[in-house]
């Protein structure tokens, strides 16, 4: 039996993909896991309690946290996984659409974090794991708004960790690379598509599908989350997958001109 039996984990966006696999991995590790989805879902056969949450709504997030607290009296781990993608030229999205992507991917994290921090502070302990992306470290042509949200999560998470570390709470980043999920099937499309981008947008989507087919298994991301949750002294970030670790190294240590050239080559853009 795990040494962390009876600890309570809340995993957002747990209806499928990385969120579901992560919730299952935490359950196997001994956590009592609550997962969230936008629509009603039955509890899973392996013991994950599913609750509804609209991450863009303050009241919905607070209701979720209150429900978990009323059932268990504690929240030890928050995994902020819920998010959406957006593929297209940056100028093809209206400000309204951009605000929505940020509302889900950034302000949703802020809402959920603010809701659990008072609980964790009273407990004198807690851990928050934010799912970022390797695209939070590098430019991402035709994923500019999605990438921007992940850059924001990187800065927010590192800063917050310094603020609350003395309260017994740690904030950790998990940075998946390309992962084999249905992420590309649920991409948001630009609400102001422009003909000048039609060909390259279609090509970028085709490239994404090809890359995802060769990506890391979602179980590798789940394993990183479990490690980050259980570490006595967690690392600041857990970069998942060989390719993602290589990208992180290249971004940190090699000249900007080298990074620029190879990024264009990877995305099959003209030099």
Automatic annotation (TrEMBL):
It comes from Phyllobacterium ifriqiyense. Coiled coil: none annotated. InterPro entries: NAD(P)-bd_dom_sf (IPR036291), SDR_fam (IPR002347), SDR_oxidoreductase (IPR051911). SUPFAM superfamilies: NAD(P)-binding Rossmann-fold domains. This is Short-subunit dehydrogenase. Keywords: Oxidoreductase. It comes from the Bacteria. Gene3D superfamilies: NAD(P)-binding Rossmann-like Domain. Belongs to the short-chain dehydrogenases/reductases (SDR) family.
């Amino acid at each position: 039996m795990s040494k962390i039996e009876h600890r309570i984990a809340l995993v957002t966006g747990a209806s499928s993909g990385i969120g579901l696999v992560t919730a299952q991995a935490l359950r196997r590790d001994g956590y009592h896991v609550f997962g969230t989805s936008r629509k009603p879902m039955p509890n899973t056969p392996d013991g994950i309690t599913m609750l509804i949450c609209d991450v863009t709504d303050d009241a919905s997030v607070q209701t979720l946290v209150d429900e978990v607290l009323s059932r268990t009296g504690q929240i030890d781990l928050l995994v902020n996984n819920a998010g959406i993608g957006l593929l297209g030229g940056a100028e093809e999205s209206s400000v309204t659409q951009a605000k929505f992507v940020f509302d889900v991917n950034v302000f949703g994290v802020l809402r959920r974090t603010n809701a659990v921090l008072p609980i964790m502070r009273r407990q004198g302990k807690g851990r928050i794991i934010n799912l970022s992306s390797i695209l939070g470290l590098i430019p991402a042509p035709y994923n500019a708004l999605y990438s921007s949200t992940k850059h924001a999560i990187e800065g927010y998470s590192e800063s917050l960790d310094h603020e609350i570390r003395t309260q017994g709470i740690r904030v950790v980043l998990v940075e998946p690379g390309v992962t084999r999920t249905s992420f590309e099937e649920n991409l948001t499309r630009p609400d102001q598509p422009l003909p000048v981008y039609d060909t390259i947008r279609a090509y970028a989507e085709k490239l994404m599908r090809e890359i995802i087919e060769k990506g890391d298994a979602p179980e590798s991301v789940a394993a990183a989350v479990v490690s980050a949750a259980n570490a006595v002294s967690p690392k600041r970030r857990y970069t998942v997958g060989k390719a993602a670790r290589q990208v992180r190294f290249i971004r940190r240590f090699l000249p900007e001109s080298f990074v620029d050239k190879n990024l264009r080559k990877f995305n099959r853009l003209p030099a």
